[in-house]
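pipeline stage [seq->struct] | target=Probable succinyl-diaminopimelate desuccinylase | organism=Virgibacillus tibetensis | residues=421
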Amino acid sequence: MNKTELKQMLINEVENNKDELIELCSSLIQIPSENPPGDSTEISNFVADYLKKYDLGVEWHESSDKMYNLVSSIGDEDGKHLIYCGHTDVVPAGDLKKWDFDPFSGEVKDGWMLGRGASDMKAGLTGLIFAFSLLKRLNVQLPGKLSLAIVPDEETGGDFGVPWLLENGIIEGDGCLIAEPSSPLNPTIGQKGSYWFELEVFGEPGHGSLSPLAGKNAISDAVKAIHEIEKLWELEIEVPDEIKPLIEVSQRYMREVEKDRVKFQPVLEHVTVNVGTIEGGTKSNVIPESCKVQVDCRLPFGISEEEVTSFIEEKLNALNIDYTIRAFGFRSTANYTDAQDPVCKAITDNISFVTGKESYGVMQWASSDARHFRDYNIPVLQYGPAYLPSIHGYNEKVKVEQIVTCAKVYIAAVVDFLYTK
């Protein structure tokens, strides 16, 4: 059996067993694994028990209280090594009254899988687990190693999932596929950087009836500072030449595929600025002596966190205000994997093989665990089933057909990646 015949056989097996695939996805959605609080005990036990049914050994790694990383491997240790990666945590369901259905029902209705995590990313995680177990059940003799890494702590940007596994040398490989939500034909192979910071502005308290002649109003100064910080968007940034093809194809994607995103094309080349929270003052009749503002900036290729900080400081120093800046949360530089890397080719080629349609990698304007793999020189991309408008919102859902398609791509990509030297 040649590679093409093997891939087609595996794709047929996914199709023949798709009812089990969908049932597994429903079961995962029915397990609340909201983060916060981040307790992955129940869902980790379920996944481990499922794998053990097919004689797949599972390593447990508790990185923090009730946060479990599961790792399982099959194949030849001496060959190439591909990592399947997915997270078990989901964002909180929020106000249940705003859902049209039980967010933890895992119900299938009118061709849609319903529930919290359906798109982000229990459908993708299901596809990885199912493809991994199917290779074992079919006794496919892989000429390389395939590892399944299931992590607990992605949605809060925490350190107890992928970063913890990499830092402790528990996983390493020649390529990685993360089943994060993506467009059906366009995996994400690059990401903007992230820079979250808190600006604290200091004033002098006084009686509100004497403002602005008395005291120094920290909130007023913070408003002036925000106005200057928002000028980051106006910066002209020189994108490195090697990145320009990725920017261009990503903008093409926004014009031709996700057409509702046409207006967002500029975000790929600009620093975005979101003033997310502001807190200051004690009472309306007291001049506030402090004000805290939290800002989320996403950085394109061509600019660093240090350069952004320098720009902000130059602008704020000119205001003659008293302030400090403290970085927190998501922090990374823009990063990508070359479209011609074997792991990217394995996915895009097999999206085309399964669907008969053109596939190409694009850039993501947000961040994920992919950046951590790239920090360890592991080529990585993201591809998973999703209804993108529903992610992190009410009434999250994904098309059942897409769950099946992605699982077929996952299992076929293993063949192309591991059987190619």
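stage status: PASS
auto-comment: DSSP finds eleven helices and 16 strands in the chain. The radius of gyration is 24 Å.
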